[in-house]
Structures are given as C-alpha cells and as structure tokens.
Design goal:
Protein name: Folate-binding protein YgfZ
Keywords: Transit peptide
Number of helices: 4
Helix content: 10-25%
CATH superfamily of the largest domain: Probable tRNA modification gtpase trme, domain 1
CATH topology of the largest domain: Gyrase A, domain 2
Organism: Agrilutibacter niabensis
Radius of gyration: 19 Å
Shape: globular
Largest sheet: 6 strands, antiparallel, barrel
Number of strands: 16
InterPro entries: TrmE/GcvT-like, YgfZ/GCV_T_CS, YgfZ/GcvT
Order of helices and strands: EEHEEEHEEEEEHHEEEEEE
Length: 290
C-alpha cells in the first residue's frame, strides 16, 4: 500500500475494474451511432469521448469512454459495468449489421498519476498494437490510462481507490450494479463531461433526454459529498432530517470517504446526513470533459 501520495506519482498500477469491449467491422460506427448517447459523427479517428447506453426510458445502463481507433474499430472502456453482460445485450441489436462485438479479455488496463507521454485531451496516444494511452487528467492533476496487451503493473487497492475518488471529485459517477437503470444523464450531470447529445438522431432513450433538455425540466443533478466514515451507494441523503437525495457512487481516497448523490438543483442549505453519518458538500472539480 502507498500511504504517501507523493511516493505513488508516476507508478503504474492495475485498474482491474476497467474492461474493454471492441466493436469492429464495416458498420461498427453506424451501430454505435444508433445505440449510444453521444454523437459519434463529431468524433474523428484517433480521438475519444465519454458516452453511454440507455434504456428506452432514458436511464443509464452503462457509462464508458468510447475510443474511435479508425472508421471500423471502436473500443468501449468500461470502468464498472460487466462487459460480458453488456456485450450480450448489445448483440441483440446487431440484426444484419456488419459489426462484431467482442469482450477483449486479452487487454489490460492500468493507470498512473502522471502526465501521458503522447496523449493530450481527447487525442489517443499510441496504437492498438503497441498499446493505447489516454489523458485522464483534470484540474486536480495529471493522470494517464493505458490499455495494453501485456501489463506488469502492480495491484494496489489504495491507488485504485484514489483513482476512483479522483473520478468522483470531477463528476464522473462510478456506478455499481445497484445504480444502473435508475438515473437519466441529466440527473447524473453528465453534461459536465460532454457525455451525451441532445441534437443527434435517434438512440435508445433519446426522446426522454431531448425533451428533458429542451423543456427545461432538469431538476436534479450530482452533488459531491465527503465524510469521515464509509458511505454506500443506494443510501438516502437527508437534510435536517428530511429526505433530500440518494447516494449513487462511493470511493475512498485514503483521506476522506467520498460519494456522489443525486439531489435537487435548487435546495436550501442545511446539515446533511447519510444514515447516522454527518456529511458535507464540496464543489465538483472541472477538466474531465472530452
């Protein structure tokens, strides 16, 4: 374990909760454009953006980074969702499209709290053969994520927790299975990371997402909470004893227990509690949008 954050700078560590699904073939991009919530037509080869897959009612099934390696090769980098289950669900919508969907168990994901060597912003560094590098940095500092066929990165739960906490601090919800199919992109404040489009053509849930946006009905979004003891996704958040919202994601950075909660955008200041634990709200960081 690495109790000293300075000692961990630049050290590569495994991110075993990150998995890769590959979409390949002539219709890969067309299939992704029809299914996923961000606009792939605006994404050039060699770049990536945040995206996700929704239920027909506009609830988030999975949130991921979508890498466009070339016109016929896309990778979905899943930080939490089960890739086997998701790939099987996507396969049901292939029909006659010329697209292959494969869980890439041969690929390994690692992270480092250091600037990337090649990647910048949404530009992908490296290539699928030698290894792909992404810039996952934000206002709180630099981060590099690599997708490799061979990795010798150490397994360190403390560094993995620090990575997840960084995500939460910048508004990237790390949703456990208990929180899938529950929340719209707006309720998860995914506009902060440019993860969905309200102007592209049809995709599952698009009507709900667009109507909510254009009718100005966004009433809830994310708040960052901190506490001195562990919080758990699915717990209720209360303000002065009254129900206020719900915890959707949790992490521990080694110093504080963090959580993201869906709360009303307009609310009065009041003492906050999750269960018997006092919590306080902190501002969300910026810079993770791509």
């Amino acid at each position: 374990m690495h109790d000293n954050p300075q000692a961990a700078e630049g050290l590569a560590f495994a991110l075993p909760d990150h998995r890769v699904i590959a979409l390949s073939g002539r219709d890969a991009a067309v299939f992704a454009q029809a299914q996923f919530m961000n606009d792939l037509k605006t994404l050039a080869p060699g770049r990536w953006h945040w995206s996700g897959w929704l239920t027909p009612k506009g609830r988030v099934i999975a949130l991921f980074a979508l890498l466009k390696l070339d016109e016929e090769t896309l990778w979905l980098l899943l930080p939490d969702a089960d890739p086997v289950t998701l790939a099987a669900a996507l396969q049901r919508f292939v029909f006659r499209s010329k697209v292959g969907i494969a869980v890439r168990d041969d690929l390994h994901v690692e992270g480092a709290f250091a600037p990337p060597a090649q990647a910048r912003g949404a530009d992908i560094g490296g290539d699928a053969g030698a290894g792909v590098e992404l810039d996952f940095g934000a206002d709180a500092g630099a981060r590099t994520l690599r997708i490799l066929s061979v990795s010798t990165a150490l397994h360190d739960p403390a560094l993995g927790g620090r990575w997840a906490a960084f995500d939460l601090r910048h508004g990237l919800p790390r949703l456990p299975a208990s929180q899938t199919d529950h929340w719209t992109p707006q309720q998860l404040s995914l506009d902060r990371i440019n993860a969905f489009s309200v102007k592209k053509g049809c995709y599952p849930g698009q009507e709900i997402v667009a109507r909510t946006h254009f009718l100005g009905k966004v009433k809830r979004g994310l708040a960052l909470l901190e506490a001195d003891s562990a919080l758990h996704a699915g717990e209720d958040l209360r303000a002065a004893g009254a129900p206020l919202g719900h915890v959707v994601a949790c992490a521990d950075d080694g110093n504080r227990h963090l959580a993201l909660a869906v709360v009303p955008l307009e609310r009065a200041a009041a003492p906050l509690q999750v269960g018997d634990t006092d919590v306080w709200e902190s501002p969300l960081g910026e810079g993770l949008a791509r």
